[in-house]
Amino acid sequence: MRQPLVAGNWKMNGSLDSIKPLVEGIMAGLDSVTTAEMAVCPPYVYIPQVAAMLAGSSIALGAQDVNDRESGAHTGEIAPGMLTDVGCKYAIVGHSERRSVYGESDEFTARKFAAARQAGLVPILCVGELLEEREQGITEQVVSRQLDAIIDLEGAGALADWAIGTGKTATPQQAQDVHAFIRGMIAREDAAVAEKVQILYGGSVKGSNAAELFAMVDIDGGLIGGASLDANEFLSIGRAGNA
Ligand code: PGA
Predict the structure, then answer these.
(1) What is the position in ligand 1's atom list of the atom closest to the CA of 205?
(2) Residue pair 26/39 in contact by the 8 Å Cβ criterion
(3) C-alpha of residue 106 to centroid of ligand 1, in Å
(4) Any residues with CB less than 8 A from the CB of 133 and at least 6 apart, and which?
(5) pTM of the model
(6) Which of these ranges, 87-91, 113-117, 153-157, has the smallest mean pLDDT?
(7) Using CA atoms, how far apart are residues 230 and 181, in angstroms rounded to an integer?
(8) Residue from 5, 10, 11 whose mutation best tests the ligand 1 pocket (most atoms within 8 A of CB)
(9) Domain positions in the chain
């Protein structure tokens, strides 16, 4: 049985003032989450503050993105080693907003994935189709292309320590179908890795729909955007993973 991971992606939200009660609220209710690992991914600038607040807690810390280089003349970018330096375990890689709004390619995403692993981070690789791609019926082609970019660069062995976020506002069955497709694709490379990899669903997960999503056999938790900005809502999603 794979442990569920419930990761909050705060996106470009928050302030010094708002983060404190949010993190304190999550920590105060954490005992009610018995099974899932909980993680938060604040904007880069707040990571040290959140790390200090989380010291000694079981909540893991992640970043929302990472660069593919170790250091150097890359104005505005953050290196993987900087993230481990400030206490991150996870880095989201290839979020749909990076891909579609900022035009980041499958190849760049694959290099970020490789660099994150190299530095000892666990990449939360996001794959998934845009709404218009789903309507065109090309979901599987899009997801295969995105995964193949990783497999081509890193090989199947690299897949052992990753988590994947996928999709946008799907029904539990639609999400399960894509997750099963992803696990099947990985299984063709390495069955043991496919059994182990956590495949998270991302897209409008809330306290009210998390249990039915997490009940699906190939859904191993979620990447939570908007609902992770409310401590009680985020905790209720975490509890939906209770065994
Ligand atoms: P959402 O975001 O839960 O607000 O839909 C999920 C994500 O894009 O990470």
Answers:
(1) 3
(2) no
(3) 20
(4) 139, 142
(5) 0.95
(6) 153-157
(7) 32
(8) 11
(9) 5-239
